[in-house]
Amino acid sequence: MSGIGTIFRRELAGLFLGPLAWVILCIGLFSSGYFFVLGLAGTGGDVQQALSLSLGGGWPFWALLIVVPPLLTMRMISEEARSGVLEFLLTAPVSDFAVIVGKLLAAVFFMALLLSGVLFHGLLLGLFGVTPDWGALLLGYLGAVLASALFCALGLVFSAATQTPLLAAFLAFVANVALLTLPLAADFFGSPPGGALRVALRQFDIVLHYQGSFLRGVLDTSHAVFFLAWTAFFAFLATRFLEARRWR
Q1: What is the rounded distance in angstroms from the CA atom of residue 12 to the CA atom of residue 6?
Q2: Who has the most CB within 10 Å: 62, 144, 191, 246?
């Protein structure tokens, strides 16, 4: 476990020293404000509903999770492998798991920063005398960060499996779309309501796990464990791919 902090700081510095992170941050925060204003207009000024739309209640949030994590993680391993930097990292006195966790924490920290725009909206509303439900808002934000961690871990899997950053980003993007639309497979195969396939696929429904707990302002540990378990699983896969690189 030693070296996680060093890897975390190194990756975070690498993100913010490059232009891509700043471009993503600017576009993401602008989009968050834009869709929040649209949400206010569309709900007739319903503050809580507009905030919910910014945190998983609408398609812009899920589009953000599909696109941004692959862009963040595509270079973390594949680019270093192609440039030869990864060879020096793998010979350092740090475990493969620590490398993956450090990189994952850096990506999740960036996503938490990107998603924090909705907290700023809540503070801004409070200054104008409209106090949001901070319990629901903070739980929604926590769920959003946990969901982003899952997608970041999945992105690291493909970054560790390939040596081409663009290919890693593309594969992660496709996997993200497939993961979000997996419950629709029950409709494709004509599974009846309450059918075994439909019930099984509901267990992997990311949107349902998020909206069924965090978005409602209720902390259900089973939903939190769902995101943590899948994040750990994908981090484990990324570690195995990284170990395979070490022994090539």
Answers
A1: 10
A2: 144
Q: What is the pLDDT of residues 91-103, one digit of tens each?
A: 667 788 888 999 9
pLDDT at 237 (0 to 100) = 95
- Amino acid type, 25: L
Pick out the chain residues at pLDDT < 50: none
Contact predicate 242/100, CB 8 Å: yes
Task: Determine if the pTM surpasses 0.70.
Answer: yes
